[in-house]
Write a structure and sequence with these properties.
The chain has 66 residues and is mainly alpha-helical. 82% of the residues lie in helices and 0% in strands.
Length: 66
């Protein structure tokens, strides 16, 4: 287990992303969703992770301005 807090956060983010992407792939394999919907869900998932990552980075940079 990583001792550094940053590594723990990064590992948690990676595990949650892999779990959500795995869920989408499972739904595709079980024929619950179509391939087009699976691609759309995966693109949206990547977009949300990048978007919130940029938002958190901007928040931390603004906090350092004080």
């Amino acid at each position: 287990m990583p001792k550094n807090r940053t590594l723990k956060v990064a590992a948690g983010i990676a595990v949650s992303f892999i779990a959500l992407a795995g869920t989408v792939i499972f739904l595709l394999a079980a024929k619950i969703i179509s391939s087009g919907m699976a691609i759309l869900m995966l693109v949206a998932l990547v977009g949300m992770y990048f978007g919130f990552g940029i938002l958190i980075a901007a928040y931390r940079l603004i906090g350092k301005l004080d």
